[in-house]
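From the shared-data thread, chain only:
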Amino acid sequence: WLSYRWRQRLNRENTPAELDNLPLSIDYAMIDLKFSDRFSFKIGKQAAAYGGFEYDLDPHEIYQYSDMIDYMYFDFMTGVTGIYQFNANQQIQVQIVNSRCSSLEELYGVLPEGIEKSKFPLAYTLNWNGNFLNEHLLTRCSFSLFHEGEKQNVYFLALAAAWVQERFNLYFDVMYSAEDIDKLGIISGI
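Structure, as tokens:
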């Protein structure tokens, strides 16, 4: 009913981040509480509960990430996740984590006029994972809202489906981001 996970990379910076005071070298520093076969909680620094299969793959399995995943820096954050397993094939996750680890200035540089810091820079994610047709058809869908600044939000939608067989796997991810402030930095980079 109680487990923990710790993962720290030795080839990353060990300076503490401003918001959660944990080094960016730490990916996981969490406790997992399993109350029953259906209900569990994760507390601490953890992976974000975004939908999509590319997001969850091991990096050595990816030749070239999509722009959305390649520019994401907000994948390990501190907070809490509640997980409810409806049955063996359906799971829903509700997650509240910090929306960023660094300050707005460190992340975006000089802020445009009129942008104020958020008092509570949190990210909220609702995630649904499904398993159909004897584990051949898998789904991962999520909607996230990041509160970056006062009246500056980022909305992130991920819809994914995968077909899995013994010697053939295929997945299809659709990701959409609407940003009041350029969180991914793709537009700012251009």
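Residues 118 and 149 are 4 Å apart (CA to CA).
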